[in-house]
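step=encode ok
step=design start
structure_in=
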């Protein structure tokens, strides 16, 4: 439909979801919505990187178990994370022994994996898809900024990478019941020449706004057609900028628009501009959003995953930070 949106003839169903988070996330306002909360970031492993892979594996195994779909009936794993060569996803998939498609969309990877998985199912190429993503505060800090042991002072515009992993099992409509994925809008890369790695919200906001604008245009919809429009994860700074960009384009987002990075922590947790990381939108969606859809509180949700498509090397070379946004429509 239009330029960037796919509407499914036979909308795939989200059969299950599962979320695992670290202790800081468990202490936040959404703590009761997660399936498991780790007591610390290492969880008995020798490094944070190994722990992140273990966290993603736990989330994917939990989603498969809750779906009641035999593991050998999962056709593909679609997964990604923030680490170089998406090692958390690759190592977790190694344990699952299923066909694996690795994805990198930075913090938009959960929405991207759900979008592509739904295309595979509606297109007749798969019966069941396992989608999962992860991030870890300490692994991301070490790779993109400075090791946490260094105690570097964080800018007020900086976001706190979520230690968490979320996963969903998506199947054909006849395989079970649950919320349906009815449409997806694949975003395009938007770059407004932001170079500050401590202000990723500003880098991603124009891309999220662009995807929302194109989604509305393609489907001839407006804000009131959704009970909730949620980005993941712009944080407080990026959310305010996206609202302003959309306002200048003639769209008043009202109170229906919020962000996973704003929801998962509260002001007392000293996270500055909010949360970020692949795990942020995945655990908020797998927990709070899925619970509210199943309870009948939300009928139609637009999840817009946002990603900052830079690397530590590109930033050191003075490159700007390209942004991306992928949108998924979930309906009760």
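sequence_out=
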């Amino acid at each position: 439909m239009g330029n960037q949106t796919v509407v499914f003839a036979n909308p795939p169903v989200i059969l299950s979801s599962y979320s695992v988070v670290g202790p800081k996330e468990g202490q936040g306002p959404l703590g009761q919505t997660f399936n498991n909360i780790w007591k610390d970031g290492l969880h008995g492993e020798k490094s944070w990187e190994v722990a992140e892979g273990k966290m993603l594996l736990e989330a994917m195994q939990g989603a498969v178990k809750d779906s009641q779909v035999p593991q050998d009936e999962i056709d593909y794993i679609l997964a990604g994370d923030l680490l170089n060569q998406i090692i958390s996803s690759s190592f977790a998939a190694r344990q699952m022994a299923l066909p694996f498609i690795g994805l990198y969309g930075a913090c938009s990877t959960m929405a991207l994996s759900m979008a592509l998985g739904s295309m595979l199912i509606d297109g007749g190429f798969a019966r069941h898809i396992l989608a999962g993503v992860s991030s870890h505060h300490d692994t991301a800090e070490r790779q993109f900024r400075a090791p946490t042991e260094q105690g570097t002072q964080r800018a007020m515009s900086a976001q706190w990478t979520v230690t968490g992993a979320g996963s969903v099992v998506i199947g054909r409509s006849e395989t079970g019941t649950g919320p349906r994925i009815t449409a997806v809008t694949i975003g395009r890369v938007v770059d407004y020449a932001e170079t500050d790695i401590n202000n990723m919200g500003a880098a991603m906001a124009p891309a999220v706004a662009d995807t929302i604008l194109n989604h509305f245009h393609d489907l001839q919809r407006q804000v009131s057609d959704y009970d909730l429009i949620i980005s993941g994860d712009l944080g407080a700074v990026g959310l305010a900028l996206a609202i302003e960009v959309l306002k200048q384009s003639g769209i008043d987002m009202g109170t229906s628009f919020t962000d996973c990075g704003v929801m998962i922590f509260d002001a007392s947790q000293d996270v500055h501009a909010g949360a970020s990381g692949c795990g942020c939108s995945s655990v908020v969606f797998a927990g709070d959003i899925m619970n509210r859809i199943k309870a009948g509180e939300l009928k139609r949700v637009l999840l817009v995953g946002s990603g900052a498509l830079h690397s530590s090397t590109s930033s050191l070379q003075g490159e700007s930070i390209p942004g991306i946004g992928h949108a998924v429509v979930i309906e009760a």
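step=design ok
step=annotate ok -> The chain has ten helices and 14 strands.
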